[in-house]
Amino acid sequence: MPVSDAQMVSAWTHVLGLSRLEAGQSVTILTGPTTNEQTLRTALIAAAGMGAVVNRLDMLPRNGEKALSRDLLAYLGDTPLTGNMPALAMLKESDLVLDLMTLLFSNEQVEILESGTKILLAVEPPEILLRMLPQPSDRDLVENASAILTSADIMRVTSKAGTDVTFGIGEFPVTKEWGFVDEPGRWDHWPSGFCATFANEGSSNGTIVIDAGDILLPQKCYVNSPIHLTVKDGFIIEIAGGIDAAMLREYMDSFEDPEVYAISHIGWGTQTKAHWSTLGLYDREATIGMDARAFSGNFLFSTGPNNEAGGSRTTACHIDIPMRNCTVRIGDLTVVEEGKVILHKLP
Known about the structure:
Layout: H1 5-18, E1 26-31, H2 37-49, E2 53-58, H3 85-92, E3 96-99, H4 107-114, E4 118-121, H5 126-131, H6 136-149, E5 154-159, E6 164-168, E7 174-177, E8 187-189, E9 194-198, E10 205-210, E11 215-216, E12 221-222, E13 227-232, E14 235-241, H7 243-253, E15 263-269, H8 290-294, E16 299-303, E17 319-323, E18 326-330, E19 333-337, E20 340-341
């Protein structure tokens, strides 16, 4: 159901408060042709109401002729900021960038963050933003998961469907998403709630079975029949199964880049306000699928680039695959058991 502007202004004020926005600081709102008008309108009101110096930077689209869908994450690579030094300088001079366009997996985003600017991505529909309004408790859950993830050098994932795969970890930093940006140079995504890292180069080996009911993104569809992936030395070397496997294989092949088969980030969802079932309630062009990425107890793994974590892969194809009913172990510690998060009290 729709939400009111008053609700969204209140939500933005809440999130900007958690992001430590102060009067007199500069906020640049980055927009494009797909930006939600209500999200933009209410962000402007909320930021100005908190005393910020507010600017809007509107950019032309990029890569539409290359992508196989209109999803914002269907084709990565050059962005409207690539080679655009005046726009890049404006964002780097801002205290906070509200990304209502999507700069994910871009060199420009990395450069902006390195300048100390904070970036908050918010591109889901307003009703999803409101339902998954972040709280400090969301950060606590993710920080706890992060402490576990940094405590060992191996992740093993199994499932009754046949998944049995190991990933070396520790080469890349941990990605922590809880929905607000409370430190200089921090990036986050409202809405979210998960902890992840990128697999060590060449370390992933085993079998991943994407079972019926698991989700492919950006396809934004539930899998109907199992897809069997064989992973060797960090790359998917075989995709087997029925029509779902054939469609996934054809999609990845279309990029004509061997790096699309590399294992990218791996982790699990912690957000209890996100739901596996909601993807089927939205038109595919209305959402990028953050419920699927964040719902508590998923095992979320992806393929393709790792440049956001300091790696060298910048392939245009990035597929996120949230899976249910998996067991995730970090070293000897079970953090997810058959799709249920196991909370551990750490010293």
